[in-house]
Write a structure and sequence with these properties.
- The protein has 170 residues and is mainly α.
- It has one domain (3-71, 78-150).
- Helix content is 52%, strand content 0%.
- Helix 1 (3-14) packs parallel to helix 8 (136-150) and helix 2 (18-27) packs across helix 4 (54-69).
- The chain is globular, with a radius of gyration of 16 Å.
- This is DUF1456 family protein.
Length: 170
Amino acid sequence: MTNNDVLRRIRYTLDFNDSMMIKVFAQADAEVSREQVSQWLKRDDDPDYKTLIDKQMATFLNGLINLKRGKKEGDQPKPEKSLNNNIILRKLKIAFDLQSDDIIELLELVGFRLSKHELSAFFRKPDHKHFRVCKDQVLRNFLHGLQLKYRPDDGDEEGVSWAEVDENES
């Protein structure tokens, strides 16, 4: 999956408008324009499409964590220069305050089965003997599960609208 795909899916799931997307970046002390956001969200075949580089995606995910969980005191984490599905999954787990059981439930919502042991392998250090690379299929199904649970207008009564953020926050 490309960073642009992940960004589009998160935006749709959380029902964020352009202003909210800009606020998420601002939560990680980054300034982006409405035009940049628009270009990142365009379809791959659109002439105005721009690729979202790893550092920008990491900044967005750090901003999402700050938005959902609150900013930590002191220096903010530096965005990674290089991202992979494992890091994206870890950051989304933190942002949505998910435990392993929660992730497994989200995957089961879309009919994807994964054991706790398989899941924990994604969060290990790459040099650990039980580390496993998170493939696109796992991340895609996880994002779809998030959408089913959190998309406010998809007819899911248990859905939670995360777009309701206090306007005083910046």
